Every structure is written in C-alpha cells, then in structure tokens.
Amino acid sequence: MRRRLSKLINDPGHWRARANEMRAVAGQVTDPKVKAGTLGAADAYDKLAQLQEARAAVSGGRHPTSENST
Asked: How far apart are CA 37 and CA 31, in angstroms?
C-alpha cells in the first residue's frame, strides 16, 4: 500500500489529471468564490506536477527516495 501511494504521489501525470478534473468542475460552477477556489486547487496540482517533474529530472527519472520505500 505504501509503495503504491508513494508511486502515485510522485507521478506528475497523477497531479496533472487531478488539475484537469478540478478545471472541469470549475467549468460547471456558477459561484465565483467556489470557481476561484477550484481553479486555485487546479493550479496547486499543476505546481505539484512540476515539482515532481523537476525531482525526476534531478534524480535521472527516479524519485530520490524510491529505493528507501517499502
């Protein structure tokens, strides 16, 4: 379970998919405050994806602590 969660957390594609889901939800929302919050969450997911891509680039495509996970 922990290994699967670690793999998901470190996958930029996972975060990009979540961002896309949040943008789809924001497209259906009419309340401006809710829409802004939902789009803010989407932006945060995109930042997580960028972070994971940068970490993968530094570690040669592998998460730096992947060998230590159980």
From this structure: 10
